[in-house]
Amino acid sequence: MLFNQQPLTGHKLADMMPLFAESIYSSMRRGEGKKIQLHAEDAIRNFCKAQLELPSLVDTQAFTAQVHLGLVKLVQGTLETLRSFPSDVADECHKALHLFVERELELASKSNNEKAQLSSCKSELKSKGTTWLDKQIASGTPFTISMLEEELLRLHASFDFGEPNPAVDEVDIEQEMREFHAQLLDDLKRQYTFHIRRVVLQFIGTAKSLLEKELQVIVLPMPDQKLRERIHESKERVVLDIASQMQGWSFPQEEMVHFGNAVTEYTQQLQDAYSKQNQSASKDSAAREASARYKVAKDALMHSLNEAIIGAIPMSVDALERLYDEHLLRTCTQLSDGHQIKHEKIMQSLKADLATLMMQLKTINTCVNVRIRALNLVNFCSKETEKAALMNAAETERQRTEELANQVKQSQALAAKREQEMHSKLLEKETKSKHLLDELSSQEAKTQALERQLQLAKQKAIELAEEKKRAEAEGLKLASKERQDAQRLIEENSTKQNKLQSELRAIQARLEQQQIILQVRTPVGFTRIIHSSYQPQAKEREVQAAEIAKEKAKQLSLEKDRALKAVERERALREKLSEDILSHQAQTAKLETTMSSVIREKTRETQQLQATLTDQERKTQQLEQELQRMKDQAQALAQEKEHWRRQNEAMAKSKLDMEMQVKDEAARREAAEAAAVQVAAKAAMEAMDVTPEKKRKTAVASSSSKKAKRLDVKAPLPKLSLQEAKRLAKEEMDKRQHDTFFLATHLKYLANLSKQKESLESCLSEHLRVSAFYWAAGSLCALGKAHHIPDELIQWLLACQHPNGGFGGNVGHDRHLLYTCHAVLSLVMLGKEDHILAQETADFVVSLQQPDGSFVGDIHGEVDTKYTYCALSVLKILKQEHRINMDAAMAHIKTCQNFDAGFGNIPGCESHGGHIFTAVGALSMGHQLDKYVDLVEHFVSCKLHWINKDKLIQFILNCQDKDDGGIADRPGNVSDIFHTFFGICGLSMLGYFDDQPAFAAIKKVHPVFAIPDTDVARLGLTAQIIL
């Protein structure tokens, strides 16, 4: 302490003011020490605060040791400063600092403990909340934001924070946890929103798949308006089904709008696609009607021809041909309706269909003529031989007549039995149909009742949803109001606290100012004593001032206590308000839980009603289908009955004809026998009185008469018995059958292929179903019967097409180059190439070419020359062959050629006929066959002389199954569609069908593209062929 620029010590003060000098100096030094102590306390307080604000968490023991070490250093520095002070002042300050350090250390340790506890509670609450949300998301069960809030409140309530003590607690853990609870709830809500978006996308995908399944049962064609209504009804059913599945989720409005827009857009796409298919099906229905009309006319023509020719047999070949031409012309005129081109096509089709029948009738006529000639020949034999032959013929004819009579009786009995069975079946079907109609009516009544119940349930659900929305709105409004009131009270309390703190600071400032005044007044008093001796009044004023200061300090202390009490009251009020808010939130959550349970219950009831209604509708559809099937069966039985009736009439007529023939034959036999008796009697009489001269005359007359009789025969015939004539006729029939292509039988075989879906062969060949369709369609198109392929199979083939191009072996299978080629060729033959995704399919094929020019079949990387052939076929049809490296592809095929000039499937493999076909076909489509023509010609010419065209045709014909149809790999084996297709193609390319009117409708097959030449010309396809 300085006085007049010099240190002021106790001795100097005693010299200046002898009275009370030491006491005043001690007071002044104590005040200065107190100030140093206060500064040290502030430093200690700031140090503890800084340690508490460190981000890293430390356990209480380590934190206490760390802070204690720092505080000891601060106290030691303060004691160093107080070293020059009196010992009592230094001791007093040391004790005060020691107590302050202990108190601050205790408070800091407690604050650190509260901080660690708060951090632990936050981490645990966040972990449990996140775990619950992840578990709900993983389970896939519906849950709402209210359930999330309720679960988070439950987790929050599970923590025990103890009773708060504002006077002691530095951190309000409960308040901090409330704030963290709000932040965590916002984060979890954002995660819930992201999950909701994924759920909506899943529901969109489910709705699309359900809509596709709903529309798969639509049978085309149908009116456009009905089709649109059917698609709209399917969409509504799917939306209702998805809406029932959406129950239990809290979907934002924009997500529901997105769901509705997506379903509507996809429905429009399906409607456009089905409209196109409906138009195509409508066009095809006319073709089916024309085909049905053609079939009826053809059956009638066959029946009339059969009756006319059978009734006129025996007859000449020219007469038979004229009769055939008359019936054929009349039927063609009836079907063509005056169109010349249509007349010619119908004429060709009828000739092809009637070829087998006419061949059989001609054979029968030939046999009958041979038999008549044999009988005529017998008449010119000797009398005894003639008589024996006539007797044998009569006996044979009698036996045949009896056999025919027995056959007619058996046929009549079989027809009667069949008619009775059909009658009983028809009665049974009618009874069952009536029962099904009654059941259908009851099901429709049940369905209507269920629909009414479902409508009522929907109305209740809507009312409950509206009531829930109103309750949520009221709850939100009330919660918002309470939050506003609480916020207002908190702001008011904060304002009051700030005001009280300002007043406290002002009071502390006044106290400090009073202390400064006291410190300043003392030296002034000393100065006055020095200048004016001692004045007792000054002392009294100082005492009064000290008492006034003490009184003000006491008042300030009382005001401070009042302010602290007011803060306590505000804290209690805030806690009470928080408790009220929590209570109201719990009530709101309870109400939401109740509403959610009621809605879930109603939703379950609605779902049950919807499921029952769907089941009833399904049963109704099944009953309708069963009823339709029964009607179809009844109609088929009626047609079969009519067929049997006509067959019985034909057989009865044939029986009458045969009986007439038998009577005529018996009359001729009796006349022959009588003539033989007369001749024998006359010969006996002449023999009794014959002379040598008469004998010679008789011999001459006999020879002349025999010569005259032989001149009456139109054509000399060999002498054959009846059995030999029959044997020759049978041999001729067998020879003609071995040389005949059974067109009708093969068509029946091809038509029955689609009915063998449950067979073992069909199940084992499921992966190559598209190839089987190509072989079957190729066979029918080559035979000129492409209209026999139903639209359902074409739609199935289109369903094998992938959206990004290419075809799989069946629906749902991976796309492959081989099946893509077969599907494209099939659609070309059927005239449906506009249904191919041309750009996408070309992209798929181009992507399969390898750097060396070869092609792989799919992503698995198998290389084969047949894939190069398939790729070039598809790209040439799609007009996209310029997109590949043609030179590299041709060069790769060159690497597959062997020393014998043949080709393997890959470089180094042995030559094979199939590989040669694909390699040469690819070179032909690439117009580079001339580069390899010498080697190929050498390979072919080495073995071409081995091939006998006629014998090869005969071999293919011998591989036919004349009973069930189809062609096998060799005679006697089971036929299959693969060899049937290539057998027909082989006969076509070998020219078997050329110049045969019965096969005029059969088309020539192109040797490179393996489709009819007409389709190759229509698409303008070119290939290099060297002859």
TrEMBL record:
<feature type="coiled-coil region">
    <location>
        <begin position="387"/>
        <end position="647"/>
    </location>
</feature>
<keyword id="KW-0175">Coiled coil</keyword>
<keyword id="KW-0808">Transferase</keyword>
<keyword id="KW-0677">Repeat</keyword>
<protein>
    <recommendedName>
        <fullName>protein geranylgeranyltransferase type II</fullName>
        <ecNumber>2.5.1.60</ecNumber>
    </recommendedName>
</protein>
<dbReference type="InterPro" id="IPR001330">
    <property type="entry name" value="Prenyltrans"/>
</dbReference>
<keyword id="KW-0637">Prenyltransferase</keyword>
<dbReference type="GO" id="GO:0004663">
    <property type="term" value="F:Rab geranylgeranyltransferase activity"/>
</dbReference>
<dbReference type="InterPro" id="IPR026873">
    <property type="entry name" value="Ptb1"/>
</dbReference>
<keyword id="KW-0862">Zinc</keyword>
<keyword id="KW-0479">Metal-binding</keyword>
<dbReference type="InterPro" id="IPR045089">
    <property type="entry name" value="PGGT1B-like"/>
</dbReference>
<dbReference type="GO" id="GO:0005968">
    <property type="term" value="C:Rab-protein geranylgeranyltransferase complex"/>
</dbReference>
<feature type="domain" description="Prenyltransferase alpha-alpha toroid">
    <location>
        <begin position="943"/>
        <end position="1011"/>
    </location>
</feature>
<dbReference type="InterPro" id="IPR008930">
    <property type="entry name" value="Terpenoid_cyclase/PrenylTrfase"/>
</dbReference>
<comment type="similarity">
    <text>Belongs to the protein prenyltransferase subunit beta family.</text>
</comment>
<feature type="domain" description="Prenyltransferase alpha-alpha toroid">
    <location>
        <begin position="744"/>
        <end position="928"/>
    </location>
</feature>
<dbReference type="GO" id="GO:0046872">
    <property type="term" value="F:metal ion binding"/>
</dbReference>
<dbReference type="Pfam" id="PF00432">
    <property type="entry name" value="Prenyltrans"/>
</dbReference>
